[in-house]
Each structure stands twice: as structure tokens, then as C-alpha cells.
Amino acid sequence: MTVHLVCSLGWVGAVAAFLALAGGAAVSEGGLRSAMLVAAMVVTQTVILPLALASLVSGVVSSLVGPWGLWRHYWVVTKLVLTVVATGVLLLQVRPITALGTAHAHALSSPAGQTLAAGGHAGLASLLLHGGGGVLVLIGITILGIWKPRGEIRRRPATG
Predict the structure, then answer these.
(1) Average pLDDT per run of 10 along the chain, which is 160 residues long?
(2) What are the phi and psi torsion angles at 80 (to 5°)?
(3) 3-class DSSP state of 118
(4) Which residues, in sequence order, are CB contacts of 147 under 8 Å at separation 6+?
(5) Is 152 helix (H, G, I), strand (E, B) or coil?
(6) Quick one: pLDDT at residue 28?
(7) Which helix (H) or strand (E) holds 113?
């Protein structure tokens, strides 16, 4: 349970940090924007993605060995579904985040690339949308884990 809590809350914090970097990049220009986007890429690859996967795995293991069960309570199933969806969206976003970060890394290291760093906000709206949505979903998952609303899933009696 401790591993699951650390990974889950770490995931929330890491996505909040990502959102701060994306927001900073949206209002910055030039090298500062590029540096923030490179940092957002690094945070995604080395912190957010591992924490998301660890949270998913540790949550399933914790529910299977703990008192709540994986399929006995609505709140556990809801947390599982939201975690799977959030992880899936993250996996779909890793490539575009990496592409944007890599392009801006080249902009930082090349005078010709400064045009990209000084250019428009391509991809930033997506980062802000997905980062903001991710924080909201992860906070919702956290609230469910703390609140633990009542309600077990009804099982149909076996017919034989």
C-alpha cells in the first residue's frame, strides 16, 4: 500500500510540475521556452511515465492482496478504470512530447534552430490540455482512494 501511495501521489506532483513547465513555455519565448519544453520532456520520460506504470501495477497488486479486492467495490473499479485511461493517454502523449522537446533541444544547440524557439505555440495547447486534464483526473483518483465511498458490487447468485 505504501508503494502505491508514494507512486500515485508522486505521479500527481510530477504532472503538476509538467503543467508548470508547459505553462511557463506557453508564456515564454526563445531559449527559455525551449529549455522548459526540454525539461517537460525529461520529466515525462524519467518521472511521470515510470510513476504512472508503478502506480497502476502497485494499485492492482495492493487491491488483490488487501482487504478491498479488485472487483468488490465500485470505487476500486472506478480508480482502476481512471488509472488505465490516464496511463493510456500518457502513453499516447509521450511521442509528441518527446518530438517537441527534441526539436527544442536542437533549437537550443543550433543558431539556425533559434527560429523554432522564437516561433509560435505549436503543440503547447495540447501539453496544457493534457497536463491540466491529467492533474484533474489524478486528483479525482486520489479523492476516491481517501474517501472510499460505500457500495459493493452486487454479485448474482450462481445458478446451477
Answers:
(1) 96 98 94 95 98 98 93 94 98 96 88 55 87 97 92 74
(2) -60, -50
(3) coil
(4) 75
(5) strand
(6) 93
(7) none
- For the chain, the C-alpha Rg in angstroms (whole number) is 19
pLDDT the model gives residue 119: 47
How many residues are recorded in the chain? 160
Could you tell me the three cell numbers for 70?
479488485
SS3 readout for 32-90:
HHHHHHHHHHHHHHHHHHHHHHHHHHHHHHHHHHCCCCCCCEHHHHHHHHHHHHHHHHH
pTM here is: 0.88
Q: What are phi and psi of 123, to 5 degrees?
A: 85, -15
DSSP 8-state secondary structure symbol assigned to residue 119: S
Taking the domains of the chain in order of start, what are their residue ranges? Answer: 2-113+121-147
